[in-house]
Amino acid sequence: MTKYKSPLSVLVLIYHQISGKVLMLQRNDDQEFWQSVTGSLEEGETPYQAAIREVKEETGLDILVENLPLFNCNEAVVFEIFPQFRYKYAPNVTTVTEHWFLLAVPNLYEPKLIEHQAYQWLSAKQAAELTKSWNNKLIIEKYLIRDKFL
């Protein structure tokens, strides 16, 4: 039996609490695609639990051990799945509901990449310009660019 990804996901915007620089990750399956931490919920998992798990899986950072402040934006957007990624979802699933989180970190750490091939710490403006994902761009603009970080 084929296991498909859930159409419920999280996006965790990781940024440096002093400079506002944003951590952007380069996908393994599309070298031109840079994004924040994202991932689908697993069965029985809440969005908050998924955000903690995905940050650890994608960057090696353990939010609970480090006692970091994961902020639930209490916002979700619905987006259309890019055609090249639809094979990961059940037939006829074309959209995902994505829950947003913010994670301020005290230093520009070097993530342990497993699911991505490269990373960059960029200004919020550069990060918003780099991502192909309108929803990733929107969370950066809403919470960092329109705030104090440019």
Describe the structure.
Helix content is 24%, strand content 33%. The protein is built from four helices and seven strands; from the N terminus they run ββββααβββαα. The strands form two sheets. The chain has a four-stranded mixed sheet with strand order 4-1-6-5, sandwiched between helices. It has a three-stranded antiparallel sheet with strand order 3-2-7. It is globular, with a radius of gyration of 15 Å.
Summarize the structure.
With 150 residues, the protein is an alpha+beta fold. The chain is 24% helix and 33% strand.
Question: In total, how many beta strands?
Answer: 7
Instruction: Figure out the total of helices.
Output: 4
What level of helicity do the residues show? 10-25%
List low-confidence stretches.
Answer: none
Largest sheet report: 4 strands, mixed
The backbone outline, from C-alpha atoms, is globular
Q: What is the rounded Rg?
A: 15 Å
Mean pLDDT: 94
Separation, N- and C-terminal Cα atoms: 47 Å
Indicate the structural class: alpha+beta
For the biggest β-sheet, the strand order reads: 4-1-6-5
- Residue share in β-strands: 25-35%
The string of secondary-structure elements, in order, is EEEEHHEEEHH
Protein traits:
150 residues; alpha+beta; 3-stranded antiparallel β-sheet; 7 strands; dihydroneopterin triphosphate pyrophosphohydrolase activity; Nudix_hydrolase; Dihydroneopterin triphosphate diphosphatase; NUDIX_hydrolase-like_dom_sf
Write the layout of secondary structure elements.
Elements: E1 8-16, E2 22-27, E3 34-35, E4 37-40, H1 47-59, H2 63-66, E5 70-80, E6 95-105, E7 116-122, H3 124-130, H4 134-145
Parallel strand pairs: 1-6
Antiparallel strand pairs: 1-4, 2-3, 2-7, 5-6
Helix pairs in contact: 3-4
Family: Belongs to the Nudix hydrolase family.
EC number: 3.6.1.67
InterPro entries: DHNTPase, Nudix_hydrolase, NUDIX_hydrolase-like_dom_sf, NUDIX_hydrolase_CS, NUDIX_hydrolase_dom, Nudix_hydrolase_domain
